[in-house]
Each structure stands twice: as structure tokens, then as C-alpha cells.
Give the backbone structure.
Amino acid sequence: MEVRAVPGQLVESRSGRDNGRIYLVMERAGDNYVYVADGTIRRVENPKKKNIKHLIFHSRVAVQIAEKIKDSQRITNQEMRRTIQELLEQPEERPF
């Protein structure tokens, strides 16, 4: 099963020191890795490279962040934190 990570997608770490931590995908790094940031510990300037096997992918995507990443616009850490908080408050869409 291929995992399709898209920029701005909400993910949760499921292993490592950051187990349970919530991030947004910044970009893909090959087939098995993505760069993630949360605006707090992992800032936008220094995203963490994570193996996709160690992440839980949620269906929620930050459209504004995805657009900025696509257009190579600047994203602030405060914007990243606020967006993650807003996404966590939204209900998860479950496929039937």
C-alpha cells in the first residue's frame, strides 16, 4: 500500500522520541521520507526528516499552507502552530 503524503497534510509520529507529536508535511524526500514541521520544536526553518513508516497520516490538509509551499512563499512558525491547532479542532473524516 502506497502512502500518499501531500504538503500541508496533518501527520502524527508513532515512533521515536517524538512519539505522539503532531506535524504538518512540508515536502516529500524520495519515496519513503517526508520533511515535517510543527512550528514549536521542529521549526519551519529546520524541518525533521521522517520515515513514512513512522507516521500516522490523517485526512486533514491545511490548504493555505499547501498553497504557500507550492508557491514557495514564506511560512511563519506562528502560522504553522495556529494551523495545526485549527486542524486538530476539526472532526476527522472517516471513509465508509
Summary: The domain at 9-89 is CATH 2.30.30.30 (SH3 type barrels.).
